[in-house]
Each structure stands twice: as structure tokens, then as C-alpha cells.
Amino acid sequence: MSINTKMTKVRKRLLDTALELFLDQGYENTTVNEIIKKSKTSKGSFYHHFRGKEELLFCVAYKFDEVYNDWLKTEDSTISALQRLKDFNLFVCNNLENSPYKVFYSDLYGMQVRTQFERHILNPDRLYYKLVDRLFKEAIENGEISTNNSYTELEKTYTTIQRGLTYDWCLNKWSYSITNKSEQIINAYLDSLK
User: Fold this and answer.
1) Amino acid 117: pLDDT
2) Which of 2, 59, 149, 191 has an alpha carbon 20 to 30 Å from 137's alpha carbon atom?
3) Residue 46: Cβ-neighbour burial (10 angstroms; 0-12, 13-18, 19+)
4) 129 to each of 42, 59, 188, how far by Cα in Å?
5) Which domains can be identified in the chain, with CATH numbers?
């Protein structure tokens, strides 16, 4: 086993343990020492992989990317790229709405605004952004979209809408279906590009 593989396993164990503890006792009530003890790692390992507890919470974004791999397995490339963007939006929002991590979204969004460290939600290397980029690029190449904007600019608008809706949904304490609201707004945006 290489050192990098071992480091990746330790990082994953720390993250999985932290998320389990966050779910069990809440983010605020979980300490770094508890995470270290339960994950059977060391303080040095913890701080090698994470700057602090806040960064563990930020990594929830990568947990969602694992689910996006499931969407990729079922993606139907015979339908238009624009329709797949609509379908992906529903998939994303349905997962947000039904995620056990939903209780962390308010903390996650609030801390991402205040942090001086990396904003994982905005990391362009995430599968989420790569998928949306690819679909917009394909929609432009297939002539499904008539615009002077680049696929990257279109992706930024699409993802900004999704983040904005998620933030509003958190502010309203999940009082409405983000899936239904997002379907209306994202579909209107995508249909305006035809």
C-alpha cells in the first residue's frame, strides 16, 4: 500500500467518523478530540488532513459528489443535453431534500461565507461542476442553445441558481420543496436559452 493510499484512507476515516458524530450529537457538540478518538487516528493525522472541525463540515460537498456518480450510471445520452440538465437538477435537489446531512446545510453555507480557507462548495474540480460544464458544452455543440455565452458562463449561472435556492431553502427552514421550486426556476432558465 502506498503512502498516498494510506493517507486517503485516514482522511476518509476521519471524515466518515466526523459526519457520524455530527449526525449523532450535532456539529457544535462534537469536538476534534472525539473525532480523533473514535476514528482511532492521531492529532497529527487529523491536522495533516484538515485545518479544523469546520473543514470537515465543508467536505459534505464531496459526499454529494459520490452520489453524482450514481446519476452518471443512469444518464440517458439519447435525450437532449438540456433535458439532462433538467434531470440532473431534479436529482441534485431531491438528494438535498432527502439527505441525512440536511441538518448541516445552514452551518455549511454560513461558514463557507465566513471562512478564509478553501470554499469547497465552489471547487471547480468537483464532479458536480464537471457534469454541468459537460452538459452545457454538449448542448451548445448540438445547437440546443442559442447564446453568445460560453458553457462555463452558463454553468456559473445554473450553479448560482441552485446554490441560491439551497440557501433560501435553509433560511426558510425547509418549509417548501426545493425540488419543486428548483424545477420551476431551472427549467425557466434553461428554456430561455433555446
Assistant:
1) 66
2) 59
3) buried
4) 33, 15, 20
5) 3-52 (1.10.10.60), 59-192 (1.10.357)
